[in-house]
Amino acid sequence: MCRHRGIRRVIRGLNGILDYSLLLLLLLGLVYGCYALWDSQNLAEEATSEQYAIYKPQEDTLGFQELQSMNSDVIAWITVYDTPIDYPVVQGKDNWEYVNKNAEGEYSLTGAIFMDSENNPDFQDFNTILYGHNMVPNVMFGSIKEFKEQAFYEAHPYGNLFVQNRNFGLEIIALIEADAYDSSVFNINITRNDSIPYLEVIRNHAVYMNDITLEADDRILLLSTCSSESTNGRDILVARITDQTYKDTYSAKDQDHAGHESVDRRGGWRDFIPGWKTALFLVLLLLILICFADQWICRRRRKGRK
Description:
It is a single chain. The protein is α+β, with helices and mostly antiparallel strands. It folds into two domains: 2-44 and 269-305; 53-259, Sortase (Sortase, Chain: A), CATH 2.40.260. It has helices spanning 2-47, 62-70, 150-155, 195-204, 273-305; strands at 74-80, 86-90, 113-115, 127-131, 134-135, 139-140, 158-163, 166-179, 206-209, 219-226, 233-242. The chain crosses the membrane at residues 20-38, 279-298.
């Protein structure tokens, strides 16, 4: 009899350990979920163009020169009007260096907007390719997907490129979709003689494309980012670099990009709503799981007493 009682005590002890281990796992799951939310929010804040606003070339270029003194890989500044794309451009020794390093040269999962390592840093190649992460909410090159809406594409035709202490205009001419390994698109070695066939490649991949005629000395810029729709897919915004600059007619509109919330603002309460909705969902889910676990534990204990 004593032996049976000892066995039952051991079983109850093991059951207790199992029960509390389950509760601990649920608690750890909540902690991890909250940390993941905080980390993703912090990462998005690090990637906003506001972080680099003090370096943006204005009437003087002292801020931009300061950034270049911090990181000699900084070569330009790109802006697509009325979008969050408003960043310094860097060029590394290869196309991996700035995947996880920001424009200040520091480690960051947000990366930087960087030029293909094979391109000429003065943007004199016929086609220059810039890369940037597709991040939520629309930071870095995350807003390129917005151009898939025709109304958005047509309403955002211009931008600006600052390079070698001079401003150039950007005229948006196409939005294309391509595979990351499509060498016909991601081809840096396009000569002036190859410009017409290359433009036809762009046309064949186009979601939208303006009816344009390229001149002999025209240059184009491709802004490439990962597609949300396929693993190897790339969404690419194509612009013509022009000597003529275009006025930013949106700057007087509080930078409210195309009617949705500007991601350049930091710390606004609206910025945290999506995160807190998810956090609330996680808390409610945890409470439901705890209730189920509590009922399960109680049933096990009642059976154990019997």
